[in-house]
Amino acid sequence: SASGLPPSRRPAREAKWDGNVVWEYRNPMLHHDFARLPNGNHLIIVWRTLPAGTSRKIQGGLSHEDDPEDMLGDVIQEITPAGEVVAEWRSWEHLSFEEDRLCPLDARREWTHLNSITVTPGGEWLVSFRLTDTIRLIDPRTGDFKWKWGPGTLSHQHHATWLDSGHVLVFDNGSHRRRGPNFSQVLEVDPGTDEVVWTYRA
Fold first, then answer.
1. CB-side exposure of 74: number of CA atoms within 13 Å?
2. What is the pTM assigned to this prediction?
């Protein structure tokens, strides 16, 4: 792609335990994760080129002469089992140019690198934005963020998971930490208080 990121050739799939594939969806811009909704549809994450002029407003990142003029942004689409897109959420319409800065050591090829999506029992979408070190809850009715957490604590995290307790478990990769050595850890955070209630570090 123009961003320098290779198009994905990995489909989203559902398979039986014997390995037989019973559902599959392919999209060259599909990446990282998808989730099934109670209505049988799926939420998928796809890259899309940002609208013209948007990339210049994004702060942070490591500039290079090979940077694309227009970076990639993340879109969450709701698709039917047949692959028809029935709704979509565009990240750049809800992010903040002032607050959602790129890690200063990452290339300016994409803004957020959304790498996990989970649907909570209340229907919100729990998402992880790797390049801005944040996990968030999205209200699917309005598209607005209901909760944002991570800057200053997280560093390029993955796999934000909703727990039965209403807490969030996340794997904090620890790359590009701004202070001290890099290290990985698992954190459990209470979205109601922003308190880290459990940590594992090896």
1. 24
2. 0.92
